[in-house]
Design a protein that fits this description.
The structure is a single chain. It contains nine helices and no strands. It has helices at about 1-30, 35-55, 60-65, 70-80, 80-85, 90-95, 105-115, 120-135, 140-144. The longest helix has 27 residues, at about 1-30. It is rod-shaped, with a radius of gyration of 30 Å.
Length: about 140
């Protein structure tokens, strides 16, 4: 099953190479080929290859790519920080995997991310952190 799927995905490339090869063979051995090489290339690349692309659905994939906003894609390509803002967990995993942070820091930040998944949890986390800092700064207030 996966062999057929791979063949379908690579079929236009295979057909392009076959057309190119047939044209070169016709050019190298004109006495063996009843069709001139330039006819093979024109028909192969202008008719056969587009039909194969349509039959395998590659032409549809290209149309879907054309519908996307190219400026949006280029902005994402230029600014990797924007992508990491959308997925902080992936950024955290990447930094841990690259050795930028140690395991303890990774676990601490992971807990913080999980605690702040929605707005209510984030607000509660900020309030709790503010209270903890105030208590650390003024230990006499706790004992009074």
């Amino acid at each position: 099953m996966s062999v057929l799927r791979n063949l379908r995905e690579e079929l236009t490339g295979v057909v392009a190479l076959l057309v190119l090869g047939a044209g070169f063979l016709a050019m190298a051995f004109p006495t063996l080929s009843p069709i001139p090489f330039w006819v093979i290339w024109i028909v192969g690349f202008a008719v056969v290859l587009p039909l194969v692309g349509i039959a395998t659905g590659e032409a549809l994939d290209e149309d879907e790519d054309a519908d996307r906003d190219p400026s949006d894609q280029s902005r994402r390509d230029r600014d990797p920080a924007a992508e990491s803002e959308r997925d902080p967990l992936a950024e955290l995993r990447r930094r841990y995997a690259e050795g930028e942070i140690d395991e303890l820091e990774f676990e601490r930040r992971l807990e913080r991310l999980l605690e702040t998944e929605d707005e209510a949890a984030a607000a509660a986390y900020v309030d709790r952190r503010r209270t903890d800092r105030e208590q650390e700064a003024d230990p006499e207030r706790d004992s009074a």
